[in-house]
Specification:
Radius of gyration: 29 Å
CATH architecture of the largest domain: 3-Layer(aba) Sandwich
Helix content: 25-40%
Keywords: Methyltransferase, RNA-binding, S-adenosyl-L-methionine, Transferase
Protein name: Probable 28S rRNA (Cytosine-C(5))-methyltransferase
InterPro entries: MeTrfase_RsmB-F_NOP2_cat, MeTrfase_RsmB-F_NOP2_dom, NSUN5_7_fdxn-like, NSUN5_RCM1_N, RCMT, SAM-dependent_MTases_sf
Distance between the termini: 77 Å
CATH superfamily of the largest domain: Vaccinia Virus protein VP39
Low-confidence stretches: 436-441, 443-563
Largest sheet: 8 strands, mixed
Family: Belongs to the class I-like SAM-binding methyltransferase superfamily. RsmB/NOP family.
Structural class: alpha/beta
GO molecular function: RNA binding; RNA methyltransferase activity
Oligomer: single chain
Number of helices: 22
Length: 566
């Protein structure tokens, strides 16, 4: 398959929401020059409205059988009129060359009517004026350090802004980023090992990139691993690791010490993951070519896992590109697809929280949709029954989650405006390890958690009664009257419902209607016990473990049945 056919296929897949341009281009291993393919796809998409007007006026799709596919006709006509000239010597070139005069004349008429002199003038205003993002460069601390990288760029004629080491405010930093031009660069305000260059800088052929000393990674993509911050020597899981940027960052945070389990089930992406980690000098990674959802939390291999990064597949609606304004309209992702994505995201986040010794889980997406972000977090918090709570992710970050969620201020959002990054969402969940901390299951270390606590509990107790798992028992909810008291709603097969209360000191039944003996006995034989443990999570002193109490209960007498004499 030739270059034009490959480009046309990718354009159709992008319009069908089957992937981003970048991911689809990288998956086409048969094309030798992926950079050329990427540029051809991007430029054709950018000029798609103009190309459609020219193609429809000349009716080339009707006149030429080889150009009946609209994406293919767009690619060929773009390269003839706007690109670098046709490179094909086959039927495609012959088919379009016959209509070159008519196509060129129609393009000229469009420019006359629009009163513009250049082809770019035909583009919509919001496409022409959309500001590109800065070039972010993450220094790979496994191979070098920030000072040496800055020195290397300065030796090439770049000028480092010394003021970036001591900005007075985030607004002052943003103003400096906006004014970056030429060979000036600075250090990021939040991430000390990230450098910021003017838009359009291409370092793909730079020696520091080719030897793995720097990683070309958007700032927002660097935030999740920075928040997770596993200690050196930790056991960590990266659920959806490919292509490997976040995985290599985690390895750097861990100083290549400990175990970093990286999962990806896609074959092509797994190969990319392997090559990228090797290039970055990662040595602590254990790569798993499998679906993370099929991994048992009880497997001894993962018993000591304490940190998990969950960055699942998403709609990608936050990726900033001129193509977004052409291929996507606001909220254009179909509701059905958003629903299926959110279900998958919730399942993988919940699975990550099920590992017995996990302490901290960071959930992130490059989506702007609430269905994939705050709603997923809310759903999982309810389904895990108060075992985990949110902590304020990156406290000095000003752009927070949506305000119509009570826990929104604990989440983090990033966007092109005002942050000069891709659209991103991050939430940090930590295991509850004490009565008071568990009570604040939505609120972590925020200053206003005490004021919002009562409203959160009311909302949580109301919503959780509507949530019912497949076993008919809703997860434990913390009782707002007593921080040591827990209540569980029971739904039996015969339709009887009730609410069982349990505490460390007493266990008594309340509001139990109907015959619910089986569910009652199951819950009465359980007791919450507190186990003191030393833990490095700030403010945490103990954790609650649900254990079966074998002694001390008067079990119900059951009628003995005589065994038949053999």
């Amino acid at each position: 398959m030739g270059l034009y056919q490959e480009a046309a296929g990718i354009i159709q897949q992008v319009r069908d929401k089957r992937g981003t341009v970048k991911s689809l281009v990288l998956s086409h291993r048969r094309v030798k020059n992926t950079k050329q393919l990427y540029a051809l796809v991007c430029e054709t998409l950018k000029y798609s409205d103009v190309l459609d007007q020219v193609i429809d006026a000349v009716q080339i799709c009707k006149l030429e059988k080889t150009l009946q596919r609209r994406p293919l006709a767009q690619v060929v006509v773009y390269d003839l009129l706007i690109g670098k000239g046709l490179k094909s010597d086959g039927n495609l070139k012959a088919a379009v060359w016959k209509h070159k005069a008519a196509l060129s004349a129609e393009l000229a008429r469009l420019k006359v009517r629009a009163k513009v002199a250049s082809n770019e003038g035909l583009l919509p205003e919001h496409v022409r004026k959309e500001a590109p993002l800065p070039r972010y460069v993450r220094v790979n601390l496994l191979k070098t350090n920030v000072e040496d990288v800055i020195g290397h760029f300065e030796s090439e004629g770049y000028s480092f802004d010394q003021c970036s080491n001591n900005y007075n405010s985030y607004e002052e930093y943003l103003a400096s980023v906006k004014s970056l031009t030429g060979k000036h660069f600075l250090k990021d305000f939040h991430l000390p090992n990230v450098l910021v260059f003017p838009p359009g800088k291409d370092f793909h052929q730079h020696p520091l990139y080719t030897d793995g000393s720097i990683i070309l990674q958007d700032k927002a993509s660097c935030i999740p691993a920075h928040i997770l911050s596993p200690l050196p020597g930790s056991n960590v899981i990266d659920c959806c690791a490919a292509p490997g940027n976040k995985t290599s960052q985690l390895a750097a945070v861990m100083n290549n010490e400990g175990k970093l389990h990286a999962f990806d089930k896609d074959g092509a992406r797994f190969k990319t993951l392997k090559s990228m980690l090797a290039k970055a000098g990662v040595q602590c990674a254990h790569l798993h070519h499998q679906d993370f959802l099929k991994v048992s939390p009880l497997d001894k291999t993962y018993q000591d896992v304490e940190f998990v990064l969950v960055d699942p597949s998403c709609s990608g609606s936050g990726i900033v590109s001129r193509l977004n304004s052409i291929t996507d309209k606001e909220d254009s992702t179909p509701t059905q697809r958003l629903g299926s994505l959110a279900s998958f995201q919730a399942s993988i986040l919940k699975h990550a929280l099920s590992f017995p010794n996990v302490r901290r889980v960071v959930y992130s997406t490059c989506s702007t949709h609430r269905e994939e972000n705050e709603e997923v977090v809310q759903r999982v918090l309810l389904e895990t029954g108060g075992q985990f709570h949110l902590t304020r992710a990156l406290p000095n970050w000003t752009h927070r989650g949506l305000g119509d969620f009570e826990f929104g201020h604990l989440c983090l959002r990033a966007s092109a405006q005002p942050d000069y990054t891709n659209g991103f969402f991050v939430a940090c969940l930590e295991r509850c390890l004490g009565d008071k901390e568990c009570l604040d299951c939505y609120h972590g270390d925020g200053d206003d958690k005490a004021q919002a606590n009562q409203g959160n509990l009311n909302s949580m107790n109301t919503n959780v009664k509507r949530k019912q798992n497949s076993e008919g028992v809703v997860p434990h909810v913390y009782d707002k009257k007593n921080c040591n008291q827990f209540s569980t709603k029971v739904v039996c097969n015969n339709g009887a419902t009730g609410e069982l209360s349990t505490s460390k000191k007493s266990r008594k039944r309340r509001k139990l209607n109907g015959d619910c003996e089986k569910a009652e006995e199951k819950l009465q034989n359980s007791v919450w016990e507190s186990k003191e443990r030393n833990d490095s999570v700030p403010g945490s002193q103990s954790t609650f473990l649900l254990k079966s109490k074998k002694n001390g209960h008067k079990k119900r007498k059951r009628k003995k049945t005589k065994k038949p004499i053999v």
